[in-house]
Amino acid sequence: MIGSMSSYPFQEIEPKWQKFWEENKTFKVTEDESVSPEKRRYILDMFPYPSGAGLHVGHPEGYTATDIYCRYLRMNGYAVLHPMGYDSFGLPAENYAIKTGMPPRSTTEANIEHFTKQIKSLGFSYDWDREVRTHTPEYYRWTQWIFLQLFKRGLAYESDMPINWCSSCKTGLANEEVKDGKCERCGQIVERRSLRQWVLKITSYAEELLADLDDLDWSDSIKAMQRNWIGRSEGANVTFSLADGAAAQGHIEVYTTRPDTLFGATYMVLSPEHTLVQKITTDEHRPAVDSYIEKASHKSDLERTDLAKEKTGVFTGAYAVNPVNGEKIPVWISDYILISYGTGAIMAVPGHDQRDWEFAKKFGLPIIEVLQGGDIEKEAFTGDGPHVNSGFLDGMGKQEAIDAIIEKLEKDDKGFRTVNFKLRDWIFSRQRYWGEPIPLIHCPKDGIVPVPEEQLPLTLPEVKSYEPSGTGESPLAVIDEWVNCTCPECGGPAKRETNTMPQWAGSCWYYLRFIDPDNTEAFVDPDKEKYWMPVDLYVGGAEHAVLHLLYARFWHKVLHDIGVVSTSEPFQRLINQGMITSFAYMRPDKVLVPVDEVEIEGEEYTEKATGVKLERVVAKMSKSLKNVINPDDIIRDFGADSMRIYEMFMGPLEVSMPWQTKGLAGVHRFLNRVWDVAERPIEEGEPPADLVKLLHKTLKKVGNDTSTLDFNTAIAQMMIFINGIFQEKTCWRKLWEPFVLIVAPYAPHLAEEMWSRLGHDDTLAYEPYPEWSDELAADDEKEIVIQVNGKVRSKMIVAAGTPKDELEALAKKDEKIGEWIDGKNVVKIIAVPDRLVNFVVKG
What we know:
By secondary structure, this protein is an alpha+beta fold. A hairpin with a 4-residue loop joins strand 3 (about 155-165) and strand 4.
């Protein structure tokens, strides 16, 4: 009976269909050559790190979006590769092992089992036969193989580099493990220490990584972030010789984009870690310099370069010579200059750079105006103007002066034109256990020798302790029976490399292994790679906008250059889903209060303990605020289909939005209404004409919106359709079968059950997507806006296709419009059928 709504029994239906898909391998895909290339699609989710916390509601947002799209594509005749796996090396498992003694492998694998169970409970259509886990030797054998290709091409080298060092944990820390200058684990102040590192020469690919962004279907904001990170600029390298007692120590080289301002360079600044600092510092200034260097070693790069912080620095006692005017200028050190950027040295032009100006004001250094147009007594002038106080450049504009000064520098052998990149080479080693061993051997006779490829994988040894060695080396360094080995070149005694690879390594190429996960002869079969690549759609969080994407693109370009992949870019189209946030409650002093300590009455929020009125704000979900939503609870209480549709209905895919359980309850009611219709007696005859029109309108809207990933508006149209047919006493098969097929990508469990009850024996996953008639889908009526001089003053509803002259006549009769045009000179009337009428009025 209509009105006494029956509830959709999701607890029975969802596990039933998940079991069916798994047992029948419904979503398994093979490389079928009879499928034309334009009918193949590789749709990829960023695979997760399997943390102990399990899946949170943010993960399924992207996964649901790709799943809906994949199901839609299959119904439209596409072969779809849609895999899932785990980025399973990483610091949290190792830190947990240090704390508890539990081997990282066993905790990681237990976490993976939990994650897999959670992912499967949402009904995603992955081909699970292709699952990869980056921590397995079968997988990292090929990660090591790719590293050796980089090494053999001269793209991997050893270097002493500064790292974050915790003296309490006796280990190096990744930047992510340093919070406010302290070790995240123990709270000890972190120092900077130089350690032997493996580095990958990503800078060799800087030009390609930049240029090839133009051809990718990525958002402008993500492209901009990559461009800024690569940071290409054109300028000059300039050589400053050292003066007086320091002259024997050589020279200082700087890179500048504005060599035309050289006449305004009044001092130089070196990074505290610059190799020249110890050589040129005079005895008188050495105590102050040493003390400053020690203090700088406790600061993170982020703190050092913070524009808001007060500038600090000390004078070395040494002077350099300005190459354009022979002036002696003092050499300082300051922690806002990083050794890892540029040459670790700058020429300071305080008249025209605000940071240099603040430094010069603080330490009483000269400020010279070389570009006319500002008051450099008040602040640096950073605009452009004619050159002044610049000798032969006086009166010139910017580009003319840049060209002239570079020509002179090159003639005098004091500098040269160059392109520079902000991008630094990639520090690739970690002093850790739980990562891929780097397959290199150190031989006293032959130097650094690669492990022969046929001996890969070089596996991690089982160890008793995961504690760091204390020397800055990884825990592997103390396992003599693993470290000591034979050189493959000369057969003499040698030692293994004990650094391991960073977590980024496994995720640099996983999309290629999904194509051919069980291959023991190659990392991917070339024919299968050509069949699927490039990835047609890649979906994941914006937090990977720079590093993961840049590193994966770099590795892919190397693989392309050695001829083992067929495309120069891995990911053709990229979408970053928005974050699912949560409501939080804030005191007047801006402190957030945990949800369970808040009294909520309507729109009033009060802190229980104090009675203080709180403001509701949107914040990231966090354990401390007790506003984390667990997907398991949602699936238990509302079902997976409700959760899938709610996460898509919250708003456009790329926008961040707060989770609201009442919105979820509304979606659940919608699915109950769908079930209610499905439970009615089936009517085989011809449905009413108005409902047929509503069906075709719905088929068109949902089909088009699903193809463009506008899932929220597709769901809204399905709700309109259910409202339109809900008063019918029976279920019209000719309306219902097409509707079940279009709802299937969104609520697959419910749709499969309804399809089966309609008398079909097999899954609907490969049923053809319903077609619609444009004629039947067309609107009978249109809303026409009426404008006066381009401003909307009224609206009217008319029959679709009403001709221009009728529109004009109807618009003139509109009451509101009369107020705007009566007694006025109507110069022109513009009428556009089905859209607008515009009166152009004078007087």
